[in-house]
Each structure stands twice: as C-alpha cells, then as structure tokens.
C-alpha cells in the first residue's frame, strides 16, 4: 500500500479525472445557494443539481470535485462509531449526458488498481450491482473483476422519489478479518453487511430513469453519472487506521485536545476516546461552517453550529478541560486542510472570535444546566419518582446542550432513570418542526429539455443601450415551444436585448416591445436567465406575434437609472462597512430595487448609531468626491490582481466584469452601474436590524428617495415643534431636555410618595404575624406600582428580622405579583423561597422562581392573591 497523506489522496483523485477530460469544480460553500430544500450542502451532487435538472447547461459535461459537506441527521452517533462525521469531504466524478456505465466503471477500476494511481490490490475489491443491471455486471467483469467479487444486491437502486433515479454499484475494500468487529462466521460478515472488514469506499450511480409521480420509472433523455467517494474512509485505508479518526485528518486535533486536558490520552480509555472524537469532529465542522458564513443561533444552520460547540464543550468538561478551548483547535484544522482550503487560515481571526464568544456564553449556560439537572434530580427524589421526565431530559439536551448519555450518567449516580421514550418523543417533535420549517421542497427536479436545447444566441446590450431592435427567436407558451403567441403571458427570447435579467440581487428591467409604428405589442414584466445564458423575457402580450418578427425593445429608462444608482450604492456601502467594522465583514445577500436597496452583511456583534453614522458619512463623501465608475472586462486572475472582491456565492466564467469606483472599491459584478458617483446625489440609511445570528441588514435609499425620506423626517420635526410651541427647530432639543428634566423630577416625587405609602402599608402588614409548624410567617397584600417596591419591602423585613418567612402580593396594573423571602436559619431547615413560590404561584395563574432566600412570581389572576397567602400557610404546615 502506498504511503499517502490526505492532501495527496485528494489531489490524486482530482488529477486522475482531469486526465480523463473532467473540469475540476472548486468546493462550493457549505451554505446552499438558491436551494431551499437543503440546510447544508450534504454531498458532491448537491452542487450539481442545477446541471442534472437542466436548469443550467455546464460548460463541460464532465466534472470532478472534492466537496466539503455537512450532515447532521445523526449527530448522536458521532464519536461512538468508526465513521460518522458531521463534516466530511466527498470525492466525485460527474457526467451530464456524456459518458455512462462502461466509462465510469473502467475509470473507477483504473484509479483504484493502477500502480500509477491508488495501486490497490484487485483481490481486495468487491463490487455490488443491482440484479437487473446486467450491463454493470458485465463491465466489471470486462475490466478484470473476478465473478465471485461481483455481488448482486436488491438495494442497489438509488431513488429519492420523483426525479432522476437509477441502479448503482458500490465498491468495497476488504481490510482483513483482523480489522473486523464480527466473527468470521457471522451472517453480517460480507461486502455490504454490518461489519468493519468490508469497507464501502465508493458509490457509482447510473442515473438513467425518471421516477414519475405515478411511481413508474421512464428512461431519461440524457443519462448521467453521479459518484461519491468519502475522503475520510479512503484515507483510513491508505493509512491502515482502525477508524477514520486515527488519520492525519483528525489526529493532530485529538493530540492538541489531549494537551489541553488534565492528562488524558487518546487510546487509553474508551469513554475518553469518544469525547476526543466528538471534539475533533465538531472542531472541523464549526471551523468550516463559520468560515463559510454560518454563525451560531437559535434556528436552522445557526442552531446546528451552537449545538456542535456545546456538545464539544460538554465533552471537554468530561476530559477535565476548563473554560473555552475549542477556538484553540480551529488553527489546527486550518493547518491540516490548508493545501486545498487556504481560505480557512485566511479567516482564522474571525473564526476564532466567533467560536470563543459562543464558548464563553455556553460556559455560563453549562453551570446553569448543571444546576437545572441537580434540581430535576432533587425534585424526582422528593416526589419519590423513578424517572426524570422525557421533557426535562430534552430541555437539558436542547437548551443546555447536555447529551442524553450525560444526563443518564448523573441520574444513575442518584439512583434514578430517564424516561427515554418521552425524550425520543420530544426529539421527534423537534425534527418534525425542523422539516416543516425547511418546507416541502423537491430534492431534485425532473430534467426539462424545453430550453436546454435552445442554443440560439441572445446578445445582451443593456450596458450601453436601452433601446434596440430585436428579433424573436423563441416563444414558450404553456410549457411548450410555439411559433406564434396565443396566450396573454408568454416567455420570449430575442437575438438582441437591452433588458437586464435578474442576477446578483439586481432586479430585472421592465419596459415595452414596440412595433414599427411605435405601438405597444407587449409589456416586459420580468427577465430571467435561460439554461444556456440567454435572457428570457416574460411578456404581457397586447398583440399576437410570431417567431422571426422584429420589434423595438425599449427599457424603462427612469426605472433603470434608479436601479443603477442603488446598485452602485451597494458597492460603496459594502466597502464602507469593511472600513468601519473590519475585513471579516462580507456581503450575505442584497436586493437592488428602483426605490431602495437592501444589503445583508455578516457582523458578529452590535451595530451602534455611531457606527451607522460613520458608514453613511463615508458613502456620502465618496458621492460628493465625484469618483468615476469604470468597468473592465478581463479574466478572473487579472481581476483578482486588480484587487477585485468576489462574492463566495457567485460563480464566475472565464471572462468577468470588474467594476471599479476609482481606487476605493473594486468588485466582480455583472450588474449595471452609474458612470460617476455624483449621479447618486445622496445616500441615506433608513433602517438597520438583525436578520439572524451574525447577520445584519441595512435598508437605504439614494437620490430622490433619500431626499423624500429626509423631507418626511423634517416634517415630523416641524409638527413636533408646533405641538411643543417651539418657534425654531434649533430650539427643539433644549425644549425636549427641559421636558425630560420636569418628567424626571415628577417621577421621583411620585416614587417617593409611593415609597412612603408602601412603608405605611408595611407597618400594618408586618404586624400580621402567625406561627405555622414552628415557623413564623408574615403574609399580606399591598398597593404598589411596580415590583421594585415589593423587593424594597422585603429588604426592610430582612433588615428588621421580623419573621422567618415573608410572603407579599400586589396587583400591579391588572397583573398579580408575589414575592417570598426566607431568612438564613429557616433555609438551613430545608425551607427555600424558590420552592415556596412554585407552590403558591398557580393560585395567580402564573409561575416563578429564584434563590433560596428570595423568589418572585407573576401571574394573570390578581383575585387569587388571598388564596396564594393561604396556600403559603398550608405549604409550611406540611413541612
């Protein structure tokens, strides 16, 4: 067996298929673009769906990639099995309507067995095929695979419902009985069985059918190849590792974690090994995910990141690692992967900052979680129960990141169990909520040949002209190609067009189609891109027309100009945000409309008004400097040498447009722009908000819309000045300050009077002393305007040491409030304020909690306050 590193293996795979005419596709972002059916990119083919569905025609139908992927449907298995991972790389080769079974099988066998490539022993390879796929069986035999190494398996058919499907062939590597986890005579000891001897390394899917809605399978017009080889598995074979974790992809991370622990070593204790594996896996995943723009949050991708960080920290705690440590492993991940993913190290400062911030936050939560766990266990004991409720165990898991096995361990020490069925029920509810949130999107569309085969050129000339003559080349009506229009709404391709097709956040142009006499033949209501790049115009037809007819195409120039201004403003805003917040800030989405612009950007932290003022000032300075805006058409490499910024979500061709705003900002961009920044006139931020964890949104306007926004605010100020009887706007701040001072003085006077009233009431209430089961108790209701006054009365009670227990209630603006205080001596007897408040809060239809010495509650039923007082006496009587 050759001695190869993971980076060498990855590159060898890509080089092999490049030698077979494949284009090496770069590893796409883990965050799916324009695919709401996916939470993460979860396979190599996930990035190829647009090609297989016919949405886009690839420049080369042969492609290969090493695609980073994330799967989180079985996080609980990570660390406990040999090959479960959240982040993994999928090596693959793909054919879109080009080569098929014979070539795919021949090349697979060559890569695996040729001394020039992997050089594996052919005798150690086994292939499974679909029983009805005799072609695959024949081709495997033709390349030299022994008949007893070709196994028919009924489940070798790849089908995910409606859409492309077909038989597949899996390749297994025999690692020998010494690597196995089952006996040699075990019925699972065969290629494809549940064992560690025969390791599946490659799956080749022959996509040749379409799964129809009625369940039938019809032949596809173009047959495709889709393969997947897990890099981690292949590396474990080359490096003779028992599991994927004892390879150069994971061991440096595990070794660093061991150095941070309290003397733990990998390979000594099985439980410790599980924790090391979890930490190594999760460190890789969160490092890459954050590098691609995903940030910790409470839903979607953000929730996955947060959950992984918490799970890693809990396992670090088990290894004796105190405090934040996961951020220290991120650079190790970057070093391991730098040969193919240099961007990870480039973003390391930002990645570490995000991880460290989340760790610090959870380390506080970890203590709270332990407190809750101890409280739950104590409650079960007091109630003489046998099990922790499934809902409580799930809350520990879901809110505090406690894996079920950790809760089980602590519960076992206390001699109690967990309602694991109840836990699973809560887990299932969460999964159903997650699936519902992602929507019922189809995973793979059916191939659609309607526009795929339309290759008639369609030239876009809208960068320079907004009014040109164009000939109709294609008409699509009711999902069919027609020669003449019959319906009101149709899609049309012209040989030349000035209409911009929606792209890069910029909305499409609208306008009109005119005949030779200047009459409106159709209104252009939308423009999108066809699979082969032409602009598809959605027309509201006024007069029927045919293929071959020539018309004048006229863009709504006023609307187009507004869009241009706002698009150039997004470039200025993008740069200004980096100037103010740092280079880690990058675009996370944008929308350029004629009336306003919307710009989403990544920023982990708060945005102050002072920050926004700085950003706005910078953009307006660049407008007032009257900077020329130029466009250069060049290749990608030259564009990067010019300093052009590329958006990670965009895919660029060989020729790119580089838009430069003087020497201030340079970006790759296919949109339309003004000739000089002075055309923007004015820039005004209208709003700023958070739209997700680590993602902020700015909405802004330029030119007349910015002026209108300011004029509206000016009228508001004038109306306020009139109401306050201020003659000049410049005097308005002084008037507001004077009113605030008066209000503050009045509020203080009211608070003083209320305090005196409360004190007078306290004199009566504090006399209401009773003895319950040897405990002195004071109860009563008082009239106060806020909870703070109840707490002040509790402080007075404590200072005067008036009783063992105090229970006060108040009706504050129609809502019931309760406060309970217990002195130190009584706490030692086992009577705690938090327990008592929970017992009486239901009387006011509320709930609450607190510390042993002080607790409070709120509810919706003030009429229940007397009952709460009586309940307090009853509760003490039962102690």
Structure commentary:
It catalyses: tRNA(Ala) + L-alanine + ATP = L-alanyl-tRNA(Ala) + AMP + diphosphate. Zn(2+) binds at residues 567, 571, 669, 673. The chain is of the alpha+beta class. It has 5 domains: 6-243, BirA Bifunctional Protein, domain 2 (2-Layer Sandwich), CATH 3.30.930; 287-435, no CATH class; 459-555, Elongation Factor Tu (Ef-tu), domain 3 (Beta Barrel); 570-712, Threonyl-tRNA Synthetase, Chain A, domain 2; 750-877, Roll (Diaminopimelate Epimerase, Chain A, domain 1). 38% of the residues lie in helices and 24% in strands. The strands form 7 sheets. Strands 1, 2, 3, 4, 5, 6, 7, 8 and 9 form a 9-stranded mixed beta sheet that branches. The chain has a 6-stranded antiparallel β-barrel with strand order 13-15-19-18-17-20. β26 (683-692) and β27 (695-702) form a beta hairpin. It is globular. The model is unreliable at 437-448 (pLDDT under 50).
